[in-house]
Design goal:
The protein is α/β, with parallel strands linked by helices and 253 residues long. Helix content is 47%, strand content 16%. β3, α4 and β4 form a beta-alpha-beta unit.
């Protein structure tokens, strides 16, 4: 499948560059936004409140995920409630565990009781998906972000895992499975085929959407021309054998 219009999976833009987020907001294909502290640090964000305020002013009509910053669950809870108060379109990212590996399930359950739309992030295993599904409210929307790209980086095919994760979450129809950390445009179609509700894609990858459906013969020719033109621009050349012998002989004199 290479037809974007036929996709059921929603494409969220993943990043923390405000100008890039604004540009993606103008694209009707983009149905929401995600960010995280690592992306914000890389983008040079220094004031979380100011960043969030500017993002929500620019993107008032689509869901945006902001992450808690604490490691203790009581602090995560009040931070989550504060973040949720920033706007009706705000989703709150809660890591699946804290840095000690303690499961965030009880916190997720409490936040759902408060009506907070939680995005449970940094999920890698089916056991984690099962445990999350058990604590999600059947009445409150939620997102479960499984890091399929990082799973693939470790040598594991994420496609069957994501298909199983989607099957597990069918018991929670208001929860959406999010394919996180995609590595290529193909992942969008894989996420759609296995039943993910969302895929979060970085701006660098989103720039490649124009390649979808591209004629491969034409793409081949463009690649050949690129290699040739770059060789010319760099001044690269290989002399014919006879010319090479003459040049080497001259250098030896």
């Amino acid at each position: 499948m290479t037809d974007l219009a036929a996709l059921k999976v929603k494409i969220f833009a993943d990043g923390a560059d405000l100008q890039g987020m604004k540009a993606m907001c103008a694209n009707p294909l983009i149905k929401g936004f995600t960010t995280n502290p690592t992306l914000m640090k890389a983008a040079g964000v220094t004031d979380y409140y100011d960043f969030a305020r500017n993002v929500l002013a620019a993107i008032p009509d689509r869901p945006v995920s902001f992450e808690v910053l604490a490691d203790e669950f009581d602090e995560m809870e009040w931070q989550a409630l504060e973040i949720a108060s920033w706007g009706r379109n705000v989703n709150v990212k809660i890591p699946v565990t804290n840095t000690r590996g303690e499961f965030s399930g009880p916190l997720v359950s409490r936040l759902a009781h408060h009506g907070v739309t939680v995005n449970v992030t940094a999920v890698f295993t089916l056991d984690q998906v099962r445990r999350i599904a058990e604590v999600l409210s059947p009445d409150v929307p939620a997102i479960v972000s499984v890091f399929a790209g990082r799973i693939a980086d470790s040598g594991i095919d994420p496609v069957p895992l994501m298909a199983e994760a989607a099957a597990i979450l069918r018991a929670r129809p208001r929860a959406e499975l999010l394919w996180a950390s995609p590595r290529e445009i193909l992942n969008i179609f894989q996420a759609d085929q296995v039943g993910c509700g969302i895929i979060a894609v970085t701006n660098d990858l989103l720039k490649k959407l124009s390649l979808i459906g591209k004629d491969q013969t034409r793409y081949s020719l463009e690649t050949v021309k690129m290699f040739y033109n770059d060789a010319q621009a760099a001044g690269f050349w290989i002399d014919a054998p006879e010319v090479g012998k003459v040049l080497r002989a001259r250098r030896a004199l």
